[in-house]
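One such given next:
>
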Amino acid sequence: MTKATLILFTCLLLISCSQDNDDNINQVNATFRFTHSWDELSVSNADFNKIKYTNANGEQLSITKLRYLISKITFQKSNGEKIILEGYNLVDVTNNTNLSFTPSATIPSGNYSHVYFTFGFDNNANYNNNYQDLNSVSWIVPAILGGGYHFMQLEGKFINNTGAETGYAYHVIRAVDNSKIPQEFQDTFFVVDLGAVSIENNSTFNIEMNIAEWFKNPNTWDLNILNNALMFNFNAQIMMFENRQNVFSLKSVTP
């Protein structure tokens, strides 16, 4: 065998082995399933429109609407390599829709040091109102507040300090200070780290949102003061962002 023939044979062998390895990679689907609680109480839309919860400030309240946006699901390997799954999901607890989300792209099975998702949209996605499905369900932030999209709409009623039943609208958007010229913005999207996982087959990530956490840590929320027009309240948006830290948790990963 000549030297040239040997080199050609070696190259073909390497290509063949590479193709075989690619063929043997196990591609799997990841599903993200969202459940909801108020501390130890399970929450679904069957519990809505009833004054049955008490926040950290002692106010009794109900939930009449809850929907929120997740995006940019990311799987990170120990070497820092990231697999970012395109797409987003509007979780709508009110209508009991999109509580589970399976991105169209698959991922290789194996060990991952981190699994992330973004609450809301990051700045690369949150502009120009280009998402017609979100536009059609009143998810747009008004232009006076910088445009883009909501991250969450949580609404209900509470018993105020005079004993009357009053509405509240806890809406999360990118914080904007309209008292500044030009407007001042501060990011309020955040990344949720679900930790390390090992995936061999199609898997479901069971994620819980503890709604009570939005009202208590580190800012004890007083609904008598902060109940409506919160999208125009720069400081309120920052407080919401600060209260994010214990809202989401990964309960389990199941086949």
